[in-house]
Amino acid sequence: MNLVDELNTRTRLGRRKAPLGVIFFALTACGGALEAELPAAPSSPPPPALRYEIRGADDEHLRDVEVCFQGFTTRRFVLLEGDGIVSATREGQPLVVEKGKGFALDADVTPTCVRYRVRLTPSVRPGFVHDATLLARPLDAPASTAVRIHVRESAGPVVTPFEVDEGAYVPRPSFLERSTTWVYGEGARLLLRDVDGVELRLVILPGQKRIPDEVLEAHLVRSLELARSLAPARYPERVLVAVAPSPVSAGNPPIAFGLARRGGGASVLFVLDEDADEEALAREDWVSVHELAHFAFPAMPRSEAWLTEGWATYFQEVLRARGGLISPEDAWLRLHRGFAKSQHDGTGRPLHEEALAMYETYAFKRVYWAGAATALEDDVALRLRGSRLEEALARVFEGEPFDRWIEFSDYVARLEASGHADLAERAREVRSGTGVPDLSAVYATLGLEARGGSLELDDSAELVSVRRAIVRGDASAPSALRPR
Known about the structure:
6-stranded mixed β-sheet, Immunoglobulin-like, 14 helices, globular
């Protein structure tokens, strides 16, 4: 069985490493020849379908793309990100390119094929590209549109988080509205692993680093295991994790940057400090758990980042304690220091407005840690009922795929419908508030005593059993929580 067969059938994956070019060759070799056009339309309307073919161009920074569609009509194709389209033609005739962001068709015709040339735009580091800068999406395509992507050998090695079927990449329907990250270029290494039923595609880009591949792999597998534990039934069936070793300024954690995306498939890119050692990775890395934890919950609009980033920020410390990567005392101290940093951050806007503007105001501490404080309050309240935050969220989002986008109004309605009206009300209050949640009452009952930048744990506190259960992963039993 070759590597493509393994991806195709989704059987149990062994510990297999190969150069990225080997994987790419197997993909292109089994792809077969594409027809120049989609099949002629039968007498009954054909199902909506969209097919991309990506080839190399005479310039290594350009790609030629042919996109064919049937079963729907559209007048425009647009890049969801970037402005790299150089030219476009249909049946040899030039089309109007709109500031590099898209092109207009001259008629509502289907089926049809369009060819365009696009500039390859790296994301964060060379080797990463968001498909939204490469593949123009048709406006008004039905959600049921079947998408297939063929990457020819001339385009160079590529790995995506998409399913592989007969040599084509097959993204999930969310591809039409959102983007994800691909890895491209020579010299990268691909590792395929099965992690508790999740297909991990781990790509390590070329570059010097002190941490051996095997150590990095084991660390990221453990981070994935911990993140998946939050929502095993909803977690993606496959995840692309791409790591780029790079020079990093002092003061950053070993994994200095991470970005999770989920349009059509789940991907995370990481920038690894090339000078970080194994001890620092084990002790100081919280970014990998944080980013992978995002896939345990649906995405929400930017204005609600205080919720989604708050959950990830809270669980980055809690999960590492549960997994033995840090001590319970260290987890509580890290949470405390994060809460303290948020006290004087931000512009004083309502939190949902702060979240919407945080890439302009840089008020990340307030947005992330106000959300994390809310997560702690919710977790404690739920544990007094014999539940816990991850269980309640799993029920609230039951049946929703990881790449579904949820509005805030939908979220609070689901909380209320599941019997958590108090959590819904707290969410509304925090969202519209101009400060950060006051945790003094929660601290007192959990036995968390702030001493400047340090934290003391009081084991005589009323809810000490809850405090211990949070970092162990236990569900707290109400009978064990009665005041003594």
